[in-house]
Write a structure and sequence with these properties.
- The complex is a heterotrimer.
- Chain A is an all-alpha fold.
- Helices cover 65% and strands 0% of the residues of chain A.
- Chain B has helices spanning 5-26, 43-76, 95-124, 238-249, 259-267, 270-273, 307-315, 333-344, and strands spanning 133-140, 143-148, 153-156, 158-162, 172-178, 183-185, 194-196, 202-206, 212-217, 230-236, 297-298, 303-304.
- The model of chain B is unreliable at 26-31 (pLDDT under 50).
- The termini of chain B are far apart.
- Chain C contains six helices and no strands.
- The chains are: A mainly alpha, B alpha+beta, C mainly alpha.
- The interface between A and B is large, with 100 and 97 residues.
Chain lengths: 563, 347, 174
C-alpha cells in the first residue's frame, strides 16, 4: 500500500491557463477582492510588517526622549500618546495579524487542503482587522473633542479605569481606542473560527490529528484560546463605551462602580493574549528546528499536550498583573502558584526543542540562527517571568522597567525573532525566491546585538527603581547611563530591521530561484511548487506519517514504522 | 568540531566583557542610585531582598544549566559541511526523559511557592502594634496628601516618619486612598509598592532603620504628569519627628506684614483649592499650604522650594509641570510678589 | 458555529459577572425588588421558540418543506413576542419607575445585560426572517437542512443565554 502520495514534479501539466499579463490595476483589484488564503495570508503579513515599522518609529522617538534626563524632545502629552500607540499597535496590529498571516498561508498547505474552510469569512476578517488599525490611527487627526482636547489615545494600552472616564479623558481618544479594537476584535474572532473549522474538517486523507504538523496544532490551540481571550476585552470595551457615551456606571467609582473590575476583565483578556501572541513563535520553532537539525521533533505527543496545557493554565493566572492592587494574601498566593505552574509545560517545550537539536547535524542558516537565539531568549524570559511571579518581589518590580525588559524579551526576543525565522523559512515558498543569506546574517547579528544591548540593560533600570510610563526622569536618580545604552541598542535594532526590509524587497526581484523544497524539509507545503498554484495541490495528497516527504525521501526508513 | 572554536572565542570575549560592564553598572550602589531595590532600609524591603536573592540563585542555576546545554549543542552538533548528505539517527522521544524534566520543575515550583507564600503572609498580614504611627495617604493627580489622624496633622508631598529600631519599634502603617484615578506608592528602599485606587483602601507598613531621605515616585500611570509625581520620605530620629509634628500641628502663621499677600491669596481663588489652617482658606483640591516653607520642594518633589521657583510656579505652573491641574491665575507682577511674600511666611 | 458560541459565551459571561458583582451595590435609586416583575410569559414564549425551531429542523430533515416553513414562522413569531414583551417592560421601567442605564449600577448592568441579549435576539430574528423569505420563494430545499441546523443552533444558544440571564437577573438578583 502506498504510504504517502502527491504529484511527482513534472507528472501533471501545471501551466497556468492565463496567457496575457495583467495590468497593475487588475493585479491590485485581484488583491482587494481575493478570498484565496495565500493572498490573504500575505496581506496580513504586509499589514503586520507595516505596523511593525510604524510602532518601531514610535518607540525610537520615545528612546530619543529618554536617552538623557530632563529631555524636551517630546512633550508629555505626545510621549504618553506614543507609548500608548506603540503598545496597542504592537499587540493588535502586529501580533494578531502575524498569527493569522502565518496561519492562513500555511495551515491549508500543511494539511493538504485547497483553501480555508470559509474563504469569504477569511477576507472579511482581514479587512475588519485592517479597518480597526486605520480607525486607531485616525485618532491622531480625529480624536479632538470638546475644546480640541483629545488626540491619539494616551491612557497606556491597559486603559485603566477611572482614567478612561469622560472626566479624566476628555475628547475622543479613548473612544477611538475602544472602538478600533472592538472592530479589529471581530476580525480576530472570524479568523480564529476559520482556522479551527479548517483544521478539523479539511485535512487530507491519512492525516489524523496526531499526524498534523506541530505548526498547525499550535495554530488550532491558538485560535481556540483566542475565542475566549479576545471576547472578554470586547465585553469590557463595550462597557467602557457605554460608560462614556450613555452615562453608565460600570467603572464609575463615585456611583459604587469598581476600578478593580476593569483590571480583572482586562487581564482576563490580557494574560491569555500574550500566549496567543507567542504560539506562532512556538509553531515556527517546531518546524524550523527539526528541519535544520535534520531530526524529527523530539516528543511530539508531549509537545501537543504541553501546548494544550499552556492554553488552559494561562486562563487562570491573570491576576499576577495585579499583585500590587491590594488583593488578599490568599488571593496573591493562589496566583503565584498558578503562574509558576504555567512555567512547567513551557519549560517542557524548551527542553524538547533542545533535545531535537541534540544528536543532530545543525545547519546554521538564517532561519536557524533566529530560532537558536529564540531558544536562549525565551528561556531567559521564562526565568524573569518566574521572578515576577514571586509576589513580594513583584511588589518591587511591578510597573518598573524590569517588567518592560521581561515582556520585550518575550515579544521581541521570542516572537519577533521567530517571525523573522518564519519569514526567512517560508519566503521562498511564497515567492519562489530565496532571501539573501548574506543580508540575513547581517540582519541577524545586528538585531541580536541591538536587542541584548537594549533589553539586558533594561532589567537593571528596573532594579534601580525606574518606573514605567514616565516621559522624563530627574538627573539625580542615577538612571542616565543605562537609559543612554538602552536607546543606542534601539537604534541598532532599527538599522537591522531596515536591512531586513531591504532584503525583502531586493530578494523579491533578484533573489535566487528557490524551487519546491530549498531546505530539504518534510511537510506537505514543500511538495508543491514555489509559489504554490492557486489550487495548492494538483491531486489531493494522502499521508501516512507526520513527515510525508521524509517517507518519500527515505523509503527504506519511513516515519510510519516508528510512530 | 573545534573548527568554529577560535571564531566563537573572538566573539565571546567582548560579549563577556560587555556583560560584566553592564552588571557592574546595574549593581552600582553609588551615591547616585537612590532608589535601588537592593538597598533595603526597612523590614518589608529587607524581606523582599532576601527572597529575591533566593529566587535569583534558583533561576541562576536553571539559566546556567540550560544555557550551558544550548551552547554545548550548538558547538557539538553543528553540521560538518555541505557535502555531508547523511541524516543523523532519528530519535522520536523518550518517556523517561519527559518525565524527568516534568518532575524536577514541579519540585522547584513547590519550593519556590512555599518560600514565596511565607513572605506574602509575613508582610501582608503583619499585625499592627499599638505604638504604630498611622498615616492616611491620599493620591491626587499629581500630588500626595498626607494626614496623621491621631496627631491632627495635614500636609502634602513630603512624608515624615519616625525611625524604628529593634529596641524601640515604631513602624508606620499607611492607609492609601485615591481622590481621582489609580496611582501607586513606591519607595523601593523602604517597601514594595501598593496601588492607590478610588473607593478601595489599601495598606502598607514600613519600619525604617536608618534616618535620612528616601526617594520614590508614583508607579501607576495616572495622567499627563505621572512622571513628576515624586515621593520624598523623611525618616526622622524621634526628636526630629516630635519637633516636626509639633510644628505641623500649629495653625498657619499670621504675619501682619504680609496682609496684602494674604488678601490676594483669599480673593484670587487660591483658597478654593488650598487650605491654610486657622484662616478662611479650607480648600481640599490642592495641597495644604499651612507649613509650605517647611518643605524642601514644590510641585511634588519636582523643584526646589526657593522664592524664584515659588513665584514662577504661581505665575504659571505649566512652566515646570505642563498639564498640572493648577491653573495660571493671571496675577499681576505686584500680586505675585505679594502672595509669594505671604506664602514665604508659612513656615 | 460552535466556535462562535464559545466566543459569545465569553462575552456574556463577562457581563453576567459584572451584573452579579454589582448586585446590591447601587448607592441609590430603584432596586430590583422595587421595580422588576418576573417575565414569565416572555420566557415561556422564548423557550417555546426553541421547541418550534427544533420541530422545523425535524421537518426539513424529512423533506417536509411546508411543515418546516410553518414551524419556522412560529419561531419567529414567538421571538417577536418576546422582544415586544421586553420593550413593554423597559417602557415601564424607564417612564414609570425612572430607571435608566444612567440611574445607578442596577440600571447600568440590567440594561447592558438584557440589552446585549435582546440584540442577539434581533440579529437572530433577522437571519431567521431571511431564511423564511427564501423558504416562501422556494429557494430553501431539503438539501439545505444542515445549514439551517447551524442557524438553529445559534437560536438555541440565544435561548440558553436567556435561561442564565433570567436566573441571574430575576431570581438571584432580586
Amino acid at each position: 500500500m502506498a504510504d504517502s502520495t502527491f504529484p511527482i514534479p513534472g507528472s501533471i501539466d501545471l501551466t497556468p491557463q492565463q496567457e496575457r499579463e495583467s495590468t497593475w490595476l487588475e493585479t491590485l483589484h485581484s488583491w482587494v477582492i481575493t478570498v484565496d488564503h495565500k493572498k490573504l495570508g500575505l496581506l496580513y503579513m504586509m499589514m503586520a510588517i507595516f505596523f511593525l515599522l510604524v510602532a518601531g518609529a514610535e518607540v525610537l522617538c520615545i528612546r530619543i526622549q529618554l536617552a538623557v534626563p530632563n529631555n524636551h524632545f517630546l512633550s508629555p502629552q505626545v510621549f504618553n500618546r506614543l507609548f500608548t500607540m506603540h503598545g496597542t499597535t504592537m499587540v493588535f496590529l502586529v501580533g494578531i495579524p502575524l498569527v493569522f498571516g502565518f496561519a492562513n498561508y500555511m495551515v491549508p498547505l500543511q494539511i493538504g487542503a485547497r483553501d480555508m474552510a470559509f474563504p469569504r469569512l477569511n477576507a472579511f476578517s482581514f479587512w475588519m482587522t485592517l479597518l480597526g488599525g486605520l480607525l486607531l490611527y485616525y485618532s491622531f487627526i480625529g480624536g479632538a473633542g470638546l475644546y480640541g482636547m483629545g488626540n491619539a489615545p494616551d491612557v497606556t494600552w491597559w486603559a485603566y479605569a477611572p482614567l478612561t472616564a469622560r472626566a479624566f479623558s476628555p475628547g475622543h481618544a479613548t473612544d477611538y481606542w475602544a472602538l478600533a479594537l472592538i472592530v479589529a476584535g471581530f476580525g480576530t474572532l472570524g479568523g480564529a473560527i476559520n482556522v479551527i473549522a479548517t483544521a478539523f474538517s479539511m485535512r487530507c486523507k491519512g492525516m489524523t490529528l496526531m499526524r498534523m504538523p506541530l505548526f498547525t496544532w499550535l495554530m488550532i490551540v491558538d485560535s481556540a484560546l483566542l475565542l475566549v481571550t479576545i471576547t472578554p476585552l470586547t465585553a469590557a470595551q463595550i462597557m467602557l463605551v457605554i460608560d462614556r457615551y450613555l452615562g453608565a456606571h460600570f467603572f464609575d467609582t463615585q456611583a459604587g462602580g469598581s476600578a478593580l473590575i476593569w483590571m480583572h476583565f482586562f487581564w482576563i483578556f490580557g494574560h491569555p493574549e500574550v500566549y496567543v501572541l507567542v504560539f506562532p513563535a512556538f509553531a515556527i520553532a517546531s518546524e524550523v528546528i527539526p528541519v535544520f537539525s535534520r531530526k524529527a521533533i523530539f516528543g511530539y505527543p508531549a509537545m501537543v499536550a504541553a501546548s494544550v496545557g499552556i492554553a488552559f493554565v494561562s486562563l487562570g493566572v491573570w491576576a499576577h498583573h495585579m499583585f500590587t492592587v491590594g488583593m488578599t494574601s490568599v488571593g496573591n498566593a493562589f496566583f503565584v502558584l498558578s503562574t509558576m505552574l504555567v512555567g512547567i509545560p513551557t519549560g517542557i517545550k524548551i527542553f524538547n526543542w533542545l533535545a531535537t537539536m541534540w544528536g543532530g547535524k545543525i545547519r546554521f542558516r538564517t532561519p536557524m540562527l533566529f530560532c537558536t537565539a529564540f531558544l536562549f531568549q525565551f528561556m531567559c524570559a521564562g526565568l524573569t517571568g518566574i521572578m515576577l511571579s514571586v509576589a513580594p518581589w513583584n511588589w518591587q518590580l511591578h510597573g518598573s522597567y524590569f517588567v518592560i525588559a521581561h515582556f520585550h524579551y518575550v515579544l521581541v526576543g521570542a516572537i519577533v525573532f521567530n517571525t523573522f525565522a518564519g519569514i526567512y523559512y517560508w519566503f521562498p515558498k511564497a515567492t519562489g525566491r530565496m532571501l539573501s543569506e548574506k543580508l540575513g546574517k547581517w540582519h541577524f547579528w545586528l538585531f541580536f546585538i541591538g536587542f541584548h544591548v537594549t533589553f539586558d540593560t533594561m532589567h537593571f533600570l528596573g532594579f534601580e527603581g525606574m518606573p514605567r510610563w514616565i516621559y522624563t526622569y530627574p538627573a539625580d536618580r542615577g538612571w542616565e547611563h543605562l537609559n543612554l545604552i538602552v536607546s543606542l541598542g534601539g537604534m541598532i535594532q532599527g538599522v537591522a530591521v531596515l536591512i531586513f526590509a531591504y532584503n525583502l524587497i531586493y530578494s523579491l526581484f533578484k533573489g535566487k530561484i528557490a524551487g519546491n523544497d530549498p531546505w530539504d524539509a518534510w511537510t506537505l507545503e514543500w511538495s508543491t511548487s514555489s509559489p504554490p498554484p492557486v489550487y495548492n495541490f494538483a491531486t489531493d495528497p494522502v499521508v501516512r506519517s507526520r513527515r510525508p516527504l521524509w517517507d518519500v525521501k527515505h523509503p527504506e526508513d519511513p516515519d510510519w514504522k516508528y510512530e | 568540531m573545534l573548527g568554529g572554536w577560535p571564531r566563537v572565542k573572538r566573539i565571546a570575549w567582548p560579549v563577556l566583557a560587555f556583560a560584566i560592564f553592564l552588571s557592574s553598572r546595574g549593581f552600582a550602589q553609588g551615591p547616585e542610585s537612590r532608589t535601588s531595590i537592593f538597598a533595603p532600609a526597612s523590614t518589608p524591603a529587607t524581606e523582599i531582598y532576601h527572597l529575591s536573592f533566593f529566587v535569583l540563585e534558583i533561576t541562576g542555576a536553571i539559566f546556567f544549566t540550560v544555557a550551558g546545554l544550548l551552547i554545548y549543542v550548538i558547538l557539538r552538533f553543528r553540521s560538518k559541511g555541505e557535502d555531508d548528505e547523511s541524516e543523523p539517527p532519528q530519535i522520536y522521544g523518550s518517556n523517561q526523559v519527559e518525565l524527568a524534566w516534568t518532575v524536577i520543575p514541579v519540585l522547584i515550583v513547590v519550593v519556590l511557592f512555599l518560600t514565596t507564600a511565607r513572605v506574602i503572609f509575613a508582610i501582608q498580614d503583619a499585625p499592627k502594634p499599638v505604638a504604630a504611627l498611622e498615616v492616611t495617604v491620599i493620591g491626587h493627580q499629581f500630588w500626595w496628601e498626607y494626614r496623621y489622624p491621631k496627631l491632627g496633622v495635614v500636609t502634602a508631598n513630603e512624608l515624615h516618619v519616625p525611625l524604628s529600631s529593634t529596641e524601640h519599634s515604631t513602624p508606620t502603617f499607611l492607609k492609601l486612598l485615591s481622590a481621582d484615578v489609580d496611582q501607586s506608592f513606591w519607595v523601593p528602599e523602604l517597601a514594595g509598592k501598593i496601588d492607590l485606587i478610588p473607593m478601595h483602601p489599601n495598606d502598607l507598613w514600613l519600619d525604617p532603620s536608618h534616618a535620612g531621605l528616601y526617594l520614590g515616585q508614583c508607579a501607576q500611570f495616572c495622567g499627563v504628569q505621572h512622571a513628576n509625581m515624586l515621593l520624598r520620605v523623611y525618616v526622622d530620629t524621634p526628636e526630629q519627628f516630635a519637633a516636626w509634628v509639633a510644628n505641623q500641628a500649629k495653625p498657619g502663621v499670621q504675619d501682619p506684614a504680609v496682609a496684602e499677600g494674604r488678601h490676594v491669596f483669599e480673593t484670587e481663588a487660591c483658597m478654593n483649592c488650598h487650605a491654610v489652617q486657622g484662616t478662611a482658606a479650607t480648600g481640599r483640591f490642592g495641597p495644604d499650604l499651612t507649613h509650605l516653607m517647611s518643605r524642601d520642594t514644590l510641585a511634588s518633589g519636582e523643584i526646589p522650594n526657593t522664592r524664584e521657583n515659588l513665584r514662577q510656579w504661581i505665575k504659571n505652573p505649566d512652566t515646570f509641570k505642563p498639564g498640572s491641574l493648577m491653573p495660571a491665575m493671571q496675577l499681576t507682577d505686584e500680586q505675585l510678589d505679594q502672595v509669594t511674600a505671604y506664602l514665604e511666611t508659612l513656615k | 458555529m460552535y466556535c462562535l458560541i464559545i466566543g459569545e459565551s465569553a462575552i456574556f459571561t463577562i457581563f453576567v459577572v459584572a451584573y452579579i458583582y454589582y448586585i446590591g451595590r447601587s448607592l441609590y435609586g430603584p432596586t430590583p425588588q422595587q421595580v422588576l416583575e418576573v417575565p414569565i410569559f416572555n420566557t415561556i414564549c422564548l423557550l417555546s421558540s426553541s421547541v418550534t425551531i427544533w420541530l422545523s429542523e425535524r421537518a426539513i430533515d424529512r423533506g417536509n418543506m411546508r411543515g418546516f416553513g410553518l414551524w419556522w414562522a412560529a419561531t419567529i413569531t414567538l421571538g417577536v413576542i418576546f422582544l415586544a414583551g421586553t420593550a413593554i417592560e423597559w417602557h415601564k421601567l424607564i417612564f414609570e419607575d425612572g430607571l435608566t442605564i444612567q440611574t445607578n449600577l442596577f440600571g447600568t448592568t440590567f440594561y447592558s445585560l438584557v440589552g446585549l441579549h435582546a440584540t442577539h435576539v434581533i440579529v437572530g430574528l433577522a437571519m431567521l426572517l431571511t431564511v423564511l423569505i427564501f423558504t416562501i420563494t422556494g429557494h430553501v430545499r431539503h438539501e439545505h437542512s444542515e445549514r439551517v441546523q447551524v442557524l438553529a443552533l445559534y437560536w438555541h444558544f440565544v435561548d440558553a443565554v436567556w435561561v442564565v440571564v433570567f436566573t441571574v437577573v430575576y431570581i438571584v438578583g432580586r
